[in-house]
Amino acid sequence: MVTSTESQLLRRATELRAQVELIVNSTAVADVHTHLFPPAFNEMCLSGIDELLTYHYLTAEMFRSAKISFDQFWQLSKTEQADLVWKTLFVDNTPTSEATRGVISVLEVFGLDTRAVNLKEARAFFGGRNLSEHIDQVFDIARVSGVVMTNDPLDEAEGPIWTSGVELDHRFKSSLRLDRLLNDWERAADTLTELRKFLDRWIERMRPVYMGVSLPAEFKFPSQDVRDKLLREVVLPAAKGHGLAVTLMVGVRRRVNPNLREAGDGVAKADVTAVERICAAYPDVKFLATFLSRENQHELCVAARKFNNLMPFGCWWFLNNPSIVSEITRQRLELLGTSFIPQHSDARVLEQLIYKWKHARKEIADALCDTYEQLLLSGRAVTADEISRDVSRLFSGNCRDWLGL
Ligand code: FIX
Ligand code: ZN
Questions:
Q1: Residue nearest to atom 13 of ligand 1 (CA)
Q2: Is residue 338 packed enough to be buried (19+ CB in 10 Å), middle (13-18) or exposed (0-12)?
Q3: Residue 18: exposure state from Cβ atoms within 10 A (0-12, 13-18, ≥19)
Q4: How does DSSP classify residue 219?
Q5: Which residue's alpha carbon is nearest to atom 8 within ligand 1?
Q6: In percent, how much of the chain has pLDDT > 90?
Q7: For the whole model, what pTM was predicted?
């Protein structure tokens, strides 16, 4: 028999779930790491069904089922590639993976046929949109207040756009990507003084909200290599001097299968103590960190408990799957309270904001509900104001504190 206290608790738990879902779904989020660009960046601004379907998460999956060689596929035009991905993953197979389900979520939001036999309707729809109105609508549907781009001054297409004095849409913030400098140092013949001047010039020009780098699983700090020297003598002093946060994305293994091009990178467990040591050595610099390996997530939480200049963020790339987002978010709530940034989209194609945030919100809401329910069972009910405060902190407050957004 259910006692009246139990039934009261049950009712409160049901109300709580509805309240949390409403707040999580309606709170605007600041997206701290994407590869999106506004239209001023010309062909770098990606949108529409062909771009969605040729996303590298999907091409990698397509090669597992379609009978086509790498060379044959890369010789196809973008529309032909998209046709093949659609046929292989959506018509001949059921779209069960997170990346395929993402496309379904996008089609569904725009009222397009999720079982279409070809891409005629979807192409006509996206092709008929006014880009600037479409961007407004996508940001609105995804409830994203702003996105941080990934900006590489040494990129042949991007560099000249910055030097010509581009005007930025206020929703697109920049971040200065340091991969070429820190991972390709054999090619950087410049002296340390010249490199520092180069960074100062680009910080002035781009006004980035952080400097970021992706690092291999073998990343060590301290170390005897050139990257260590560049970090200590160029990047970290520049971060300190300009009051800029540094974003470390650790655990990628680039070009595990180069035939897959952009889709050819892999993952390996990295050493979280390297990040701990950087945080200890540079207490005045704020660090954001994300690790690509699932095995590193618990250690990252523990590191963040030791260093309050370390902000764990996101469930990166191969971790951005509901079961793993759920696990990581719960772990972070248990170890860090609300002092972390639960997700970033890593979107490359505009409409991905819709599905990446829709799917992430679901896992974050579920994790929060269970947390509040346990709190209730322990003797404290959360109020709606407290839920809103927590969600705002997770979705934008921590980001604002760290990056001054
Ligand atoms: O290094 C990165 O920023 C990665 O996110 C990308 O390189 C990767 O290709 C990606 O898009 C993952 O989502
Ligand atoms: Zn990325």
A1: 317
A2: middle
A3: exposed
A4: -
A5: 317
A6: 94
A7: 0.97
Q: Are strands 310-312 and 245-253 parallel, antiparallel or unpaired?
A: unpaired
Give the bridge partners for 172, in sequence order. 147
For the segment 176-217, what is each residue's pLDDT rounded down to a tens digit?
A: 999 999 998 766 668 999 999 999 999 999 999 999 999 999
Chain centroid to Cα 317, Å, comes to: 7
- The alpha carbon dihedral of 373, 378, 381, 382 has a sign of negative
Please give the Cα distance from 21 to 19 (Å, whole number).
6
Task: Identify the CA nearest to 183 among candidates 236, 155, 225.
Answer: 225
User: Is the bond into 222 cis (omega within 30 degrees of 0)?
Assistant: yes
Give distance in angstroms: CA of 183 to centre of ligand 1: 15
CA of residue 236 to ligand 2 center, whole Å: 21
Distance from residue 345's CA to the centre of ligand 2 (Å): 8
* Pocket probe mutation, ligand 1, options 31, 33, 35, 348, max atoms within 8 Å of Cβ: 35
How far is the C-alpha of 196 from the C-alpha of 202, rounded, in Å?
10
Ligand 1 atom at shortest distance from the alpha carbon of 249: 1
Q: Determine the distance separating the centroid of ligand 2 and the alpha carbon of 353, expressed in angstroms.
A: 13
Nearest protein Cα to ligand 1, atom 2? 214
Query: What pLDDT sits at residue 333?
Result: 99
Question: What is the distance in A from the centroid of ligand 2 to the CA of 116?
Answer: 30
pLDDT tier at 2 (50, 70, 90 boundaries)?
low
**How confident is the model over 39-50, as pLDDT tens digits?**
999 999 999 999
- Which domains are seen in the chain, by residue range? 49-127 (1.10.2020.10), 175-312 (3.20.20.140)
How many A from CA of 373 to the centre of ligand 1? 35
Distance CA 111, CA 96 (A): 20
Q: Which residues line ligand 1 (CB under 6 A)?
A: 35, 150, 214, 249, 262, 317, 346, 348
Ligand 1 pocket test: pick from 346, 355, 359 the residue with the most ligand atoms within 8 Å of its Cβ. Answer: 346
Report which secondary-structure segment, H or E, holds 30. Answer: strand 29-31
Neighbours of 332 (CB within 10 A): 25
